[in-house]
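Two proteins, back to back. First:
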Amino acid sequence: MIDSIKIIQNGESEKVEFKSSFKSDTIESIVAFANTKGGEILIGVDDNAKIVGTQVGKETLQKYINQIKQSTIPSVIPDIEVLKIQDKTILAIDIKEYPVKPVSYKGRYYKRVSNSNHLMSALEISDMHLKVLNLSWDSYEYPDEGIEALEIKKIEKFVKVINETGRFNIDEDIWSTLEKLKLIRDKKPTIASMLLFAKEPLRMNVRVGRFKDDITIIDDRQITDTLFEAVEETMKFIKTYMMVAYEFDGNIKRIERWDYPI
């Protein structure tokens, strides 16, 4: 939990902004923080640092996350926490600096300067884009986590599969292997290694559904897990709705013929 009282007392800054309620300009601030050094937005605190509170329903957090995700390019998915201060509810939105910049909202790009958002010029947009071309998003260090956040059993399973393919053999210790594969940098996990091996699934997910026609969904599932498990669960869901025939050609094991190649 963030030290919200101290943040409120210190007022708005390059990394802090107050909002009485969640509106479109909140997403502008999210984009500005993502394009600069990250920051915190407190919903339910007015410009004078007075705690006014905000209404939070059962679906509020998911609604805001979806709204932010769908209206930003590349999609930003911040962490949102519900806090109780002075018997009032506020939301703390935590935005990390986004590695693949610049991020836009409705085709417009913002950056944080002092305690306000500034619309970026075409030259600023171009310069920012060029600076991040030399690294991909998943090669960045995952913020605020150490290698203890990775699940050893998942890594061992990965190494076993790699060795069984015969493409190359991994015979060193796990951490040296991950460093060579650039899944660990400076003793910290990259975003890629967290997506693959995190003990606790990240907020990223796979959404899979079955449609009766162009607009009617008759079944769907959201799979929130690390990538290997997400692929397996997605395939299980797909196979549930695929026809399969069996052929016997004299061998002990039958041959499966699916509607579509697996």
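And the second protein:
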Amino acid sequence: LPKVVGRGHAREIAFTSSRFDAEKALRINLVNDVFEDAATLEAKALEMARTIADNPPLAVQGAKDVFQYQENVSTDEALRYNAAKSAMIMPSQDLFEAMAAFMQKRKGAFTGS
């Protein structure tokens, strides 16, 4: 929690057990967005899921791996890991498809290979 909201907010939450509203959760970076109702939340969640699914699977998985890895290592170690992970994706068919789709101004058709 301290890595997400900061030490001060994390301590306040832990020590006081106080409840707080969605606006405060947004303000302290505990959540990314706040929506007016459940229907809007669901629509936005599906929209985000579709956006992620439209991206190259190797790139999405690579980003997940890098974010997970960097949580407990130095910045230098995280950068080395990121470079190594990126080098593994470079020769992929999805990279060539991404470049072609960009040049042709179309959505990519990614296969995860």
